[in-house]
Structure to design on (553 residues):
């Protein structure tokens, strides 16, 4: 019966549709695929699959309407390349969805057409971890990817994008994340002894001796988040209790360049990808919550604070809507976007000046089940 | 502390199902249900399936009826196995116990003592959308202290790596 129905529909589609339409006095419709998303600004929202596929929803930045999505494997990472020519993901595909052999895959998407440009099968040691900025990064020249591995023993996989294969696995025991240096094929990782360690890799895959900083934090008493952002050339981390640790990673070994304390009155940073930096105005945005305590470091935000990294002053405190992850657009006047703990997206207009304030311009609830990361193409 | 965690993880690498079963006998879910109330299970299934409320620190917000506020869940991040076909200390049928785990240090209000809790994931099946998702983070640290990190799939060292749910096993007294 089913076969007969399919056959009938196929014949109808192939030869009869036009005749029927003409008899009915209408023009037959033509099935097409949308070539691309709209021109203009967009928000990319990662909905991470924890026992199934992950997906990235693509939203119109003006009204937060959905324009399409992209699909990838479980525990996916997401990286928008500078200028947004490509969006990279790194995820794990389980052959039986929740069991059996796995395959770790880097996928490069065209963020305009949402089509896969290419895929690279990489080491299956890829960390199955919450989407975070330190787990998938491009090298300074854009020709290599640094991929966080965890078995749970940690290492960093350097993927040669030109050759389309792994270059080398760099063992990084006791360390986590890989943030690229601004020059050369090198990355810096956070280690549990309170140091940062820089590794440099040659084009032939030879790995330097680890170049270790002094101890810059204490993992027990003043831990830092894994999330870091590049601020005016300095790799910038934030402590659980609200201090910025700004690190010069341009030399052989990372060096703590300056510390900016900004938390007051029991407030502290909280969330996952909890910082975003707008370079043109030297403004760093941080998700914040009150009544900080042991274990509160992932609380959704009550406020979003703005710190001017030139004056090193807190220049704004704006009401938040429970965000756990944020990103900020580039350009002279930025917009800040965030996703809350229930998968709702919020877009804020930013007023710059001696003080910085955020005004919610658009919001839409329930866009993701397990929102982990947000990015823009503008 | 780090050395202790490393040692603990090595011991956990050899964790056997027998250990888990033994632990389950000591800490069955009946006592847990007595604390939280059977009504919770009924309430859980009526909650909308998606999205999952990923608020951290729910233990101070949910009140006594919140299964996430049970004392030994102070650093859990995952779906409760006791609402997935298993119990507080046993994995659901047909799943496998994660070979590695993260640990938390939680205070038992009944005796005021601190206990080491091993949060093992159960593996090889999909998560159960009607199970309560808890996200507590006392003492939690990023992956540079892997034994304290709860934002990673702890089924990663198993043959079947799909994340199913999380149990909370008392493994000892804290220092």
């Amino acid at each position: 019966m089913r076969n007969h129905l399919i056959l009938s529909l196929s014949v109808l589609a192939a030869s009869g549709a036009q005749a029927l339409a003409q008899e009915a006095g209408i023009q037959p419709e033509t099935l097409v695929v949308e070539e691309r998303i709209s021109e203009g600004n967009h928000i990319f929202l990662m909905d991470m699959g924890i026992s199934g596929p992950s997906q990235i929803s693509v939203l119109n930045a003006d009204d937060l309407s959905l324009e399409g999505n992209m699909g990838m494997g479980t525990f996916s990472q997401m990286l928008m390349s500078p200028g947004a020519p490509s969006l990279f993901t790194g995820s794990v595909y389980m052959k039986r969805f929740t069991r059996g052999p796995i395959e770790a895959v880097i996928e490069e998407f065209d963020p305009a057409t949402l089509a896969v440009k290419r895929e690279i099968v990489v080491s299956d040691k890829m960390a199955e971890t919450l989407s975070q900025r330190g787990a998938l990064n491009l090298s300074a020249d854009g020709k290599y990817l640094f991929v966080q591995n965890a078995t749970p023993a940690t290492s960093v996989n350097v993927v040669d994008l030109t050759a389309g294969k792994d270059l080398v696995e760099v063992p990084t025991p006791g360390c986590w994340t890989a943030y690229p240096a601004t020059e050369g094929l090198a990355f810096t990782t956070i280690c549990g002894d309170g140091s940062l360690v820089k590794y440099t890799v040659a084009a032939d895959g030879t790995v330097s001796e680890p170049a270790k900083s002094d101890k810059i934090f204490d993992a027990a008493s003043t831990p830092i988040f894994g999330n870091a952002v590049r601020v005016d050339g300095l790799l910038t981390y934030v402590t659980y209790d609200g201090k910025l640790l700004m690190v010069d990673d341009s030399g052989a070994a990372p060096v703590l360049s300056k510390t900016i304390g900004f938390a007051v009155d029991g407030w502290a940073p909280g969330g996952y990808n909890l910082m975003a930096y707008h370079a043109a105005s030297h403004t760093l945005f941080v998700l914040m919550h009150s009544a900080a305590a042991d274990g509160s470091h992932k609380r959704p935000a009550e406020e979003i604070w703005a710190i001017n990294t030139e004056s090193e002053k807190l220049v704004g405190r704006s009401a938040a809507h429970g965000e756990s992850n944020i990103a900020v657009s580039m350009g002279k006047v930025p917009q800040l976007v965030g996703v809350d703990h229930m998968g709702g997206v919020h877009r804020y207009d930013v007023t710059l000046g001696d003080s910085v304030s955020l005004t919610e311009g658009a919001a839409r609830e329930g866009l993701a089940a397990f929102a982990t990361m947000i990015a823009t193409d503008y | 502390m780090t050395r202790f965690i490393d040692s603990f993880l090595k011991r956990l690498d050899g964790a056997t199902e027998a250990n888990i079963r033994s632990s389950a006998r000591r800490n069955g879910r009946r006592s847990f249900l007595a604390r939280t109330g059977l009504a919770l299970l009924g309430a859980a299934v009526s909650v909308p399936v998606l999205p999952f409320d990923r608020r951290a620190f729910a233990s101070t917000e949910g009140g006594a009826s919140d299964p996430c506020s049970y004392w030994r869940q102070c650093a859990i991040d995952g779906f409760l196995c006791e609402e997935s076909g298993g119990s507080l200390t046993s994995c659901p049928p047909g799943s496998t116990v994660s070979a590695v785990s993260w640990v938390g240090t939680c205070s038992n209000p009944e005796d005021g003592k601190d206990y080491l809790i091993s949060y093992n994931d159960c593996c090889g099946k999909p998560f159960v959308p009607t199970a309560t998702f808890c996200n507590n983070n006392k003492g939690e640290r990023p992956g540079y202290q892997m034994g304290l990190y709860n934002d990673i799939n702890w089924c990663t060292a198993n043959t079947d790596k799909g994340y199913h749910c999380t149990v909370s096993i008392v493994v000892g007294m804290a220092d």
Notes: Chain B has one domain: 2-173. The helical segments of chain B are 2-13, 17-26, 29-36, 39-46. The longest strand of chain B covers residues 96-108. Chain B touches chain A through 44 residues (CB under 8 Å).
